[in-house]
Amino acid sequence: MEASASQKPPQGWRANIVLFGALAANLGIAVAKFVAAAFTGSSSMLTEGVHSVVDSGNQVLLLYGQRQARRPPDEVRPFGYGRELYFWAFVVAILIFAVGAGVSIYEGWRHIVDPEPLSDPTVNYIVLGIAALLEGSSWTIAMRAFDRTRGDAGWWQAIHRSKDPAGFIVLFEDSAALAGLVVAAVGIACSHWWGDPRLDGYASIAIGLILAGVAIVLARESKGLLIGERADPAVIARVRAIVAAHGGVTRVNHVRTIHTAPDSVFVAISADFDDALRMGEGETLIETIERELRATLPELSSIYIRPEKSADAYRGSA
């Protein structure tokens, strides 16, 4: 017997603040970086401008993915559209790799082969300082939001277990952006210190490699969400304990779960019921178990309970 499926919004208002804050910061930073690159001819500054544009587009895609994921279930998608957010998260990872990293490495190589004359770097340093303040503010917002959700888990463990790609993608993007700003500043400073504009191009390639590494990690995490991941082991254990606690259930064979959205889980339960139960009593028991599961674990959007003999019971009757 299956409970009616209802999709919760996969993102809360805090996550939207993270995305809107990152979007506003990246748009402003991108304009400033392109202006600085136009005045100074800096390869790493141009690369950083492209980086900010890609990040801005990523935030737009994640906001779009959130909106699409909130659509209610229908005949075509009876479990809702929550996993569409995971698709757009994977697209974001591809864009970071193909556009962000690709353009950065190409621009770096071009400026190494055909370096531009050095010019006054003051504008670059001013823009980098402003960008660091804006990116730092966005990073702080994203970090605080992620910190509220990770509990006692370590950082990497929390990212690997997270079912909300918007939160950790923004955190990774902002971290990569801050690292890129440091590399760009070092590249500009070294190119002027040694009078070699090619060093700025090497800095651009280094920024591209940072973006490529981030993109690979994000693609790996997004792929896992897209093809389906189980619920937290604590949730599975709680489901098993609730079902097993009922007197009419002699054994819980298995509990299988899959996330249909960051805050929505489908659960399929196989349980061996007491043979003495009548049909009507079994139906009532299943409804009781479903109500208790929904009350205790509201993230369970769909519940399927299948009465089924355990393997031990089959072996005993053989």
TrEMBL record:
InterPro entries attached to this UniProt entry:
Cation_efflux (IPR002524), Cation_efflux_CTD (IPR027470), Cation_efflux_CTD_sf (IPR036837), Cation_efflux_TM (IPR058533), Cation_efflux_TMD_sf (IPR027469), SLC30A9 (IPR040177)
Q: How does it sit in the membrane?
A: Multi-pass membrane protein
User: What parts of the sequence cross the membrane?
Assistant: 17-39, 85-106, 126-146, 167-195, 201-219
Using the record's annotation, list all stretches that form the Cation efflux protein cytoplasmic domain.
Answer: 232-308
Q: Membrane: present as a keyword of the record? A: yes
Keyword Transport among UniProt keywords: yes
Compartments reported by the entry:
Membrane
Domain called Cation efflux protein transmembrane: residue spans: 22-226
Q: Which UniProt keywords apply?
A: Membrane, Transmembrane, Transmembrane helix, Transport
Domain of life per record: Bacteria
Q: What is its main location?
A: membrane
Name the family the entry cites.
Belongs to the cation diffusion facilitator (CDF) transporter (TC 2.A.4) family.
Designated name of the protein: Cation diffusion facilitator family transporter
Origin organism is Sphingomonas corticis
What is the taxonomic lineage of the source species? Answer: Bacteria, Pseudomonadati, Pseudomonadota, Alphaproteobacteria, Sphingomonadales
